[in-house]
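Supplementary Note 3. Input sequence used for the single-chain structure prediction.
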Amino acid sequence: MTAAPGGPDAAWAQGGRYVPPPPPPAGSRPLARRLLAPLGTLAGVAAAFAYVGTVDPNEPGHYPVCPLLRYTGVYCPGCGGLRSAHAFAHGDLGAAFGSNALAVIGYGVFAVLIVLWLVRAVRGLPVRTSVPNAWWWGIGAVLVLFTVVRNLPFGAALAP
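The predicted structure, written as discrete structure tokens, is reproduced below.
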């Protein structure tokens, strides 16, 4: 007995191997379903900022100490990130930049990306998630350069 085209056994068409059906086009899903992932991501980030805005990282004992700083005395690219987020949540951009300038730039990049994601979800367009290797290398180079400069005497302004 053979499976009818498009019937329940059509997914087993290639020699008994399962071939999943293609996903429905992005625009065919209901708007609430398309907005679930970007709004969930935004809610998670907002909750994290609300927590860090409420629990002050400038007071000792609330958060763990950076292990790299503790054992080597070297500031990593994330050192000062919680203080930066706390200041940002309170609207103090000067203090946020002073604690971790790269993190503040990251907040801006996140804001742009989440808006693009939301607009594409509302319009029913797919979201491209592939990032070229050159971008990853560039991001890595910026992180290394930021780390080196903030640990040198002339880059003390970048240290938290």
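The two ends are 72 Å apart (CA to CA). DSSP finds six helices and no strands in the chain.
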